[in-house]
C-alpha cells in the first residue's frame, strides 16, 4: 500500500503542477528553479537510500543519483550565475518539494527489501514524470539556448537513470 502511495505521489507532483505553468509559459528563471528543485529532491531521496539500504545494487544506484544530479545542478547554478538570472520559486517547485517531503516520510517507515523496492519503484516513476515534464514543458518553454541545451543534456542522462532503475527493479523482485 505504501509503495503505491509513494509512486502516486511522484506522478502527481509534476503532473498536476506543470500544466498550470504550461498555460502561463514558465519563465527561464522558473524553469531553472523547477529543474534544480527536481535534482535536489532526487539527491535527498538517494541520500535516504544510502542511509537505509544494505543492498549493494541499490546503494550503487543511489550513489550515481547523488553524483549525477549534483553535477547537473552545479552546471545549472553556474549557468544562472553566468546569465545573471536568479531561479524563481513557483507553484511547480513548491508542489515538488511538498510531494517529496511526503514521499520521504512514507519511505522512512520502510526497511529492508520493502524499502529497496519502494525506493527503486519511486525512482522509476519520478524520473518518468520529470523526463516527461522536461520533454513536453520545460525544454520547449526555455527561451535561452544554453538553458535549453542543459535541460536536453539532463533529459538524456535522466532517461538513462530511468532505464537503470527499471533494470534494478527487475533484479529486486
Rg, please? Answer: 15 Å
Strand segment count:
0
Number of helices: 6
The CATH fourth-level homologous superfamily: Ferritin, core subunit, four-helix bundle
What's the architecture in CATH terms? Up-down Bundle
The percent of residues in helical segments reads over 70%
User: Remind me, CATH topology?
Assistant: Ferritin
Overall mean confidence score, pLDDT: 88
How would you sum up the major sheet?
none
Structure description:
Helix 3 (56-83) packs antiparallel against helix 6 (145-172). Helices cover 88% and strands 0% of the residues. 42% of the residues are buried. It has helices at residues 2-24, 28-52, 56-83, 91-108, 112-141, 145-172. It has a single domain, classed as Ferritin, core subunit, four-helix bundle (Ferritin), CATH 1.20.1260.10. The protein is an all-alpha fold and 173 residues long. The protein contains six helices and no strands. It is elongated, with a radius of gyration of 15 Å.
Describe the secondary-structure layout.
Elements: H1 2-24, H2 28-52, H3 56-83, H4 91-108, H5 112-141, H6 145-172
Helix pairs in contact: 1-4, 1-5, 2-3, 2-4, 2-5, 3-6, 5-6
Amino acid at each position: 500500500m505504501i509503495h503505491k502511495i509513494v509512486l502516486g505521489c511522484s506522478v502527481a507532483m509534476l503532473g498536476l503542477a506543470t500544466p498550470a505553468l504550461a498555460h502561463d509559459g514558465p519563465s527561464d528563471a522558473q524553469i531553472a528553479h523547477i529543474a534544480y528543485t527536481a535534482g535536489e529532491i532526487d539527491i535527498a531521496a538517494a541520500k535516504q537510500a544510502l542511509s537505509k539500504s544494505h543492498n549493494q545494487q541499490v546503494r550503487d544506484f543511489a550513489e550515481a543519483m547523488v553524483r549525477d544530479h549534483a553535477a547537473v545542478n552545479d552546471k545549472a547554478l553556474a549557468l544562472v550565475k553566468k546569465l545573471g538570472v536568479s531561479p524563481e520559486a513557483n507553484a511547480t517547485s513548491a508542489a515538488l518539494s511538498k510531494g517529496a517531503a511526503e514521499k520521504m516520510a512514507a519511505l522512512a517507515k520502510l526497511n529492508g527489501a520493502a524499502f529497496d523496492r519502494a525506493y527503486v519503484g519511486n525512482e522509476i516513476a519520478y524520473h518518468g514524470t520529470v523526463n516527461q515534464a522536461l520533454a513536453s514543458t520545460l525544454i520547449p518553454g526555455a527561451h535561452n539556448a544554453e538553458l535549453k541545451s542543459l535541460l536536453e543534456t539532463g533529459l538524456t542522462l535522466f532517461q538513462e537513470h530511468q532505464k537503470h532503475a527499471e533494470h534494478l527493479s527487475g533484479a529486486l523482485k
